[in-house]
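Incident log entry.

Two folding requests arrived from the same account within the same minute. Monitoring flagged them as a possible duplicate submission, but the sequences differ. Recording both here for audit purposes.

Request one:
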Amino acid sequence: MDDIFLKILRGEIPATKIYEDETTFAILDINPHNKGHALVISKEPYRNIFDAPEEILSAMIKTVKRLVPAIQKATKAEGFNVGINNERVAGQEIMHIHFHIVPRFEGDNVYKPARHTTYKEGEQEELANKIKAELKKIS
C-alpha cells in the first residue's frame, strides 16, 4: 500500500513542494513546529534509517544541507534543528524515511520541556562497553 509521501510525489495529494532532485524531495510540513518546518523525503519508500541504503541517506543529508541555509534565511530563523524519528515510539508517524528541518527562534519553546536523565555510578561506562561490543559484532 502506498504511503502519503508517495501520493504527494505523484501529485495525488496536494503539498507545498520546495525542492526535488532524482533521489529526494522536500515539502513544507502541514503541521509545523514553526513556520518553515520542512520534510526531506526519499523518493523510494524505505521505512526508516535502518532500511535505507547508505547512498539514499547520503543523498538525503545533502538535500538537508542544501535546504537549511535557504530555510534559515527565508524565515529569519536564529537556528534550526534537523531530526529523524525512527518507529512510532520515537514519534515516526509516517513509515517512510524523512528528515525534519525545524527553524528555531529565541523563546519558541519547541520541544520544551526537554526531559533529561542521569546515570548511576558506573552505569555510563557499562553501557558504553555494551555499545562497543555490539559495534564489534556488526563490523
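Request two (distinct sequence, not a duplicate):
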Amino acid sequence: MPRLTKLSLALLFAGAASVQAAEQAADRPLPARQAEIDAIVKEISPQRIQAYVNKLVSFGTRHTMSDTASDTRGIGAARRWIKSEMERCGAGRLEVRFDGHLHPVDNRIDKPTEIVNVVATLPGSQPASKDRLYVVSGHYDSRVTDVMNYTSDAPGANDDASGTAAVIEMACVMARHKFDATLVFMTVAAEEQGLYGSGDFAKKAKANKLNIAGMLNNDIIGSSHDEKGKLDNKHVRLFAEGVPPLKEAPSPELRTLLVTGGENDSITRQLARHVKETGERYVPNFSVDIIYRRDRYLRGGDHSPFLDAGYAAVRFTEPAEDFRHQHQDLRTENGVKIGDYPEFVDPDYVAQVARVNAASLASLALAPAAPQDVKVKTAALDNGTDLVWKANAEPDLAGYRVVWRETTSPLWQGSRFVGNVTTARIDMSKDNVLYGVQAVDKDGNVSPATYPLPMR
C-alpha cells in the first residue's frame, strides 16, 4: 500500500532553515499521529486474539519436552499451527520459518530436545534501512508446577499464549503495510526451561552481527485483574534496564556513560522512552509505566539474552500478576479455580498492549535510525552545549532534533529541530541537563534519542 503523503518541510519546521534560526524559535511540533499507524492500531482485534489464545490452549500442553509427533497435542502441533497461521495471514509478504537447535540434557532438560522458534520476517522496503531490525516476541511453551512435567495439561493461557497471540495478531495486521526497516515477529520455545529459544536466536544474531535496533518482549500480558480481583486495564508495565549487571570490568563506553551521569540513558532506556511516548500517543487513556529494572525482582524473560548480547530490549507485563494462574497444576482449592486457564485472560486488555507494541514498532520501522557518533564538545569551558554527530544515510531524512531534560526527569522535557545539519549549539549548560539527538524524516517520524558522549 502507498506510504504516507510527504508533508511539507516548510510547514513542519518553518523557521528552522539554520541552526541559528532554530535556536531563536520554539520547536515546531511534529505531527501528533500518522494515518498509517492509526490504521494499524485500529485493525488489532480482541476477537482474533481470543481465538489465538483458545487455539494454543487446545493443544493441551506446550511444554518444551512434550509430544512433537501429534497433530493435536503438544509443542510440535502448536509450533506447526503458529507457522501455518502466519503463512496464511502473511500471504507471501511474511517470510516464515522454523529456527531451531538441539539442546543437550541439563537441569531442566532431561533428554536431548529440539528447541524451535517460529520466526516471521517482514522485510524493510528502504535500501538504507532494511538491514535495521526490530524484533517482537512472545513464548509459546507452557508448564505446570513441576517444570519437568511435560505430560500434564498446561494451558498456559496468560503465560504466555497472551504474548504469543499478540505477536501473531501484529504479524497478520502489519504484513499488510510497508516499512522502511525490517520487522521480525517471533514466538519462542523453552522460555520456562531457561530462555533457550530466545537465547539461541540472540547468540546467532550477535555472531552474525545483525543490526537489531530494538527488541520488545511480551510475556504475561493477559490479565487486567490482580489476585484480589481489582481491575486495572489502563496500564502496562515496561521493564527497561539501565546499567547492565557487570561480570567483568565495564567497557570504555559504559564507563563514560556513568562518568557523565548517563546511567538512565542506556540504549534500552532510550527505547523505553520512545515506546512510552509513541504508545500513549496512539492508544489514548492507556499508560505505559516504565520500570527501571531488567525484569521483575530477580526474575527474567526472553529479552534478557538480547540485553546480554548488547541489544536494546524491553519487557511488557500486566500491572499485577495473579500467581494462582501461573505455573500451577490444574485444581480447585476452597472453591477457587487454580491454573492458567483462558477464562482468566482479558482479550480487550491484550489488544491494548498489542496496540502499544504495534504503534511503537511501526513508528520505529518508519523512522530513520538513531543518530550515530553523537558527541558533546568539551575542549573549552562553556555554559552552552555544542553537539556533533554523524549524518544519517536515509534518503527521506528531514533533519535532526535535539531533546533535553533535567537530570531528575525520566522523560524528555524540551526539544528543538535544528535542520539537516550535523552540529548544533544549545544555550543551556551540559552541567544541568541531559541531552539526546533524534533523527526525523520528512513524514515526521522520529527515531529514539542517542545520548552524547564527550568529544575530548
